[in-house]
Every structure is written in structure tokens, then in C-alpha cells.
Amino acid sequence: MTSAVFTISYRKLFLIWSLTIFQYMLVQSQSLVVPDGTFRSPVDYTFRLSGGFNELRETHFHSGIDIKPSSGAKKDKIYCIGAGFVSRIKVAAGGYGYALYIDHPECGFTSVYAHLESYSSRIDKIVKSYQLKQESFEVDIYLTNDILPVTTGEVIGIMGTSGFSFGEHLHFEIRDTKTEKPINPYLFGFIVPDKITPTVQNLSIHGLDKNFHKIYDIKVPLGEAENGQISVIETIEVPSSNIGFALQMYDRADGSSNKLGIYGLHVYADEALIYGYHMDKISFSQTRQIIGFFDYQEKKSSGKTYTLCYKYPGNDLDFLAKNGSGLIYLDSLARTKIRIEVEDFFRNRKTIHFEVKGLGQQNDSVPDKKDFKQWVYEGQKTEITESGIQVTFGKNSLFRNIAFRMKTKNESGRNTSYKIHESNEPVKSDIDLRIRPDMSDTKWKDKTIMTYISSSGKMYNCGGSWQDGYIKCRINEFGTYRIDYDTVAPTIKNINFKTKAGKISRYKFEIKDNLPVKGKDVNEISHKVWINGAFVIAPFSLKSSILEIPIADLPAGTHELRIEVRDHSRNTAYYKATFIKI
């Protein structure tokens, strides 16, 4: 007996030691794999992917893998991948929807399961107790290790499409528990068969000025590959001495038509490595930098994603730290041989070969003097103050130096609009914006907001707060802003409510506000539902704008329904009705 206990303890200690060593090595190098058997699959079938790790999304790197449902008609159960405890449960109308976080203390990792349809019964019991206590459908619950311990293979929920999910799937992540950094699940053996080489559609060659702004852009369509090799026959002449490259590309895995992200890329100039990375991990604090990782100007103008093969001065993504800038200085008298290797996790590789030659022209673009205010430099705090407005750049606000421009527009009956720089310039982190209203109306003071006006004229509520006679707001994109007043309450539209419930198990209402929201300083609409004076947990989806009120468990008789919906400016809508259950 003693020997058996010793053997089990020894194996346990060996596993802990092995995983501790792995964690250290993971930080030091790339493409390592956790020993087989550390974790089991979160589903009970051979899965396929609809989304890959670090895939390029509009405003962030994808922090996990998206697992498709099985082909069966049944709802797919989600399983705990390893022993541990539920450390966090979050229910949200948007985002991850119904999400679950499980810590695995023996190895120092956290697994994340998002967009669930529902939780297991014992987890759901905890969630409902918090929702009722807080009188809120949305909750964010942090738990200690003694409240909800879980075992390997335990059913923890059902796959769904809650939150901002447009199709049933499981968003699955592995994070380092201490740093909360997501790590590529492929490193833990959560892989799918993949013998398909990445697809590279187009090459873009950027002539750059000394501040890394494009002064020239040459698009080069790429032909079919032969044995994984794509060659551009003619030498590409570039009327610029400093250049960088960008690629329109994607990957696929076996048995799936979904476009996935690229795992690794390396750029060589005359056989010297000048830029490269592998997508092994990402920090949430850096995920915003994705807009400096692809060609933001191209994305805004054409909607196409060209991944940059060079690095802006302010781009400090961790996975780019050990490699060069990717920038090339062209000698007008010589040709430079370029080789770009694009690969997936399994080293299925596509290689592009071409030559570039400069034309001896300088990179000395001069800012347009129209509306030009001053240069704002990356890495420096800068404050620009004019009548009615103050723009404050932090040290990390920009990816590169900009020739800052601003112009004003006055409309009858409205506050002044400010076009702040160019909307196609990426913003790395928040800029503090303060605008003073031209028109003062004390009765609307609590309804004063900052709005963003898109190029099509659509208005967004950015929220904000009063400070020394200004409305202050943090913005993360350039464009047109002004002060407005939000006095309109949300709307509550009946979808299937009837005074005689009949066989209806859930009443549905559409809830909308007059202004969509944008930024960190504004709240989405909130809601509360009561039946017979008692708070009811009523799910709401920001994706569909649908509020669902469960009535199946109510006893027969007459019941009083009350709904309250409130927006950022505390404009409140009410709905009251009486219904009968037979």
C-alpha cells in the first residue's frame, strides 16, 4: 500500500515538474508541445475548426480556436479538459455570451469555454443565485478553489451560439493562469489534420517615407505555386528607397472551407532574415495592436486584409520582439532578392520569390499644409489645445509619427464638429479627447454625450464625463466627433406577447436604442424584468436585440409583467402588461 501511494505521488510530482519546465521553455522558445495526455478534448468527437488561434479579426487577434459542432442533430456536450476548479463564470449579452473559466493548478493553465448555450446543472445553480442576488442577467463571478471543483471529462455545458457568435461553435482557449496570456491550443495537442499549404493571393510593395507612411503601393498578383514555390519573373522596380511588404493570405485545414490565420512568416533579403514570427501566444493588453499589424489604410479603403511584413516603430507585439523591422533600403544600382515563407503549424509552407530594385528616389514626403497643426511623435506625450477642444496623446497612442491635422465644421443648431486627423491612420492606444459644448442647456447636462460620426453620417454614442466644462472621452480611432444630447429612451417592441399565454413558454421582445455605442466610456443598454413583483432572469442578446422572458414554470392564473430598459444616459423605457396562464 505504501509503495502504491509513493508511486502515485511520484508520478504526480513528475507531472508537475515536467509542466513547470514546459512553462519555462514555452516562454524561451516557440513551437513546443505539451506531453500527450495532459488534457483531454473539450468535445467527444473528432472536431474541425471554423476559426484558428491569432487569426486576424477587425480589432483583435483571435485568442483561441473555434470548434465546429458535430454533424449529428443532438446538442454537443462540452467537457472539462482536466482536473481543477471553476475560477470564473461570466454571462454577457454580447462578447463571449455564456463563458466558463477553469483553473488547472497542477500545471498552471486556465481553460476557457465560450458561447455556450447553457451550463451544467450544478454550475447553473451558482449562476442563477448570483443573477437573482444582483438582479441582473449579466454577471461576472470570481470563485475560490473550494466552491466548484471539476474533474477531467466532467460535462460543464452545452455548445451554443450565445454572445457575439454567428453560428454554433465552441470558442476554446488555453491561458497561462498567472499572466492570463492565451497560448496556441495546438501546443497542447488540440490539433486538426492539416496537409494544406497556406494560400497567398497578392503581394503589396510599400514605398515608405522616414515616418513609415506609404508614398507608393505596388500590387503584385501572385500566380499558382509549383511544389509550394511562387516566383515573380520580372524584377519589380520601386520609386522609393525604403520599402516594406504586405501579403493578402490565409490558411485552411483538412475537411473545412473556413479561412484560418497564418501561423508563421519569415522574410529574407539576400538570404538574411529581416522579419519573422510564429503565432504561439498573445497578450490581451496588446491585442489592439492588430491594426498596426495589417495595412489599416488598405482595410479601410478596400476591406481587404494585407498583413504587414514589416514593423512600425511603435509596434511592440511580443511575438515580433526577437526579429528585425522588415524594412529594406534599396540601392538603385543593385537588385535585392526577396524570399518570403508563409507556413501553418504543421510547416506546410508556401514560398514567394521575387527581386526588387530601387529607382534612386528619396522618401521625403511633405505633409499637406491644409488643416495641418503640428507633428505628433510616436513615444512622446503631446497635448494640442485650441478653442473648445483638447487632444492629448499618450506615449503609446501612436504606431508612427503623424503630421496631425484637424478641421472644424459648424452646423445650425448643433455643436461644432471636429474632424480629428485621418480615419485611415491606426491608433495604438487611447487618446484623451475633451470638447466643450458651444450651446449650454442645464436641463440637458446629464444627457450630454460625445458622438462619433462615421463617413456615412451614422452617429455613435461614445459616452464621456464632465471635466472642467468639457466632456472628456477616450477614443481609439480618428474621425469626426462632436457634443450631442441623448434624450431618447430605448424602445421595447412586442414580438409574441399575448394576454392569454396559451402554449407560449417564453415571451419575446425586441429592445433597441436610438444610438449604437462605441468605445470604453459608454455602457450598453441594461434591462430588468419582474413578474408579480419578483425579479426574473431574462436572457438578452445584443446580437439579435431580443429579450426572452421565461414563463413556462409559472402557475396558472393572472400575472403582472413589468420590463425596465435603460440606456447610457439613464433614459428609461417601461413596459407593463397583465397576462393569464391557464
Describe this structure in words.
By secondary structure, the protein is mainly beta. It folds into four domains: 31-188, Glucose Permease (Domain IIA) (Distorted Sandwich); 199-358, Coagulation Factor XIII, Chain A, domain 1 (Distorted Sandwich), CATH 2.70.50; 372-485, Sandwich (Chondroitinase Ac, Chain A, domain 3), CATH 2.60.220.30; 491-581, Immunoglobulin-like (Sandwich). The protein is 8% helix and 39% strand. Strands 1, 2, 3, 4, 5, 6, 7, 8, 9, 10 and 11 form an eleven-stranded antiparallel sheet that branches. β40 and β41 form a beta hairpin. The radius of gyration is 27 Å and the shape is globular.
Question: What is the count of helical runs?
Answer: 3
Strand content: 35-45%
Low-pLDDT residue spans: 1-33
What would you call the shape?
globular
The main pleated sheet reads as: 11 strands, antiparallel
Structural class: mainly beta
Q: Outline of this structure?
A:
The protein has three helices and 41 strands. By secondary structure, it is mainly beta. Mean pLDDT is 90; it is low at 1-33.
